Amino acid sequence: MKRKWLIAFLVAVLGAGLYVGHVLATAASGQTTTTYAKSLFDPVKLRGFQLLPETGTQKNRSHEPKFWSARIRTHNASDLYVVDNKFAPGGTTGWHSHPGPSLIFVVSGTITNYLADDPTCTGHPYSAGSGFTDPGGDSIHMLRNEGSVPAETIAVQFLPTGADRKIDEPDPGNCHF
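Now predict its structure.
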């Protein structure tokens, strides 16, 4: 009999947690997302580098060669997405996270990125032609179009296979919009 009560209690607590998490999540508004591509990739191990030409006068040239390098490595298979996000003036993604990193290109307008762990709620605006990254994982953020014209971003996302692409999150309480 005690076991039945314990199971009923655990089910009620879990159900309440799921309900509260859903109710407290902040919804997107004035924003649409279109998935342009989704592909399954085997584990990725990419490494690129290039020797950059020296610049400046002979006096201030370093004797060390200048390198640019990049490294991307995943363990296990990944889902890679290319998504188009369109924002009406005042549009927002709502607070959310992603289970993996994203590269975000701003193709029109201006998008402001707010980070949940910033106690000052300082927005970081990015205009057309610029880009920024989202590390994913436990990094919660919200994108907003605070301008008077539509805005658009294209994102490339690296995610664990089968993971949800976007996870709605509750308002962190530090930004009062």
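Confidence is low (pLDDT under 50) at residues 8-23.
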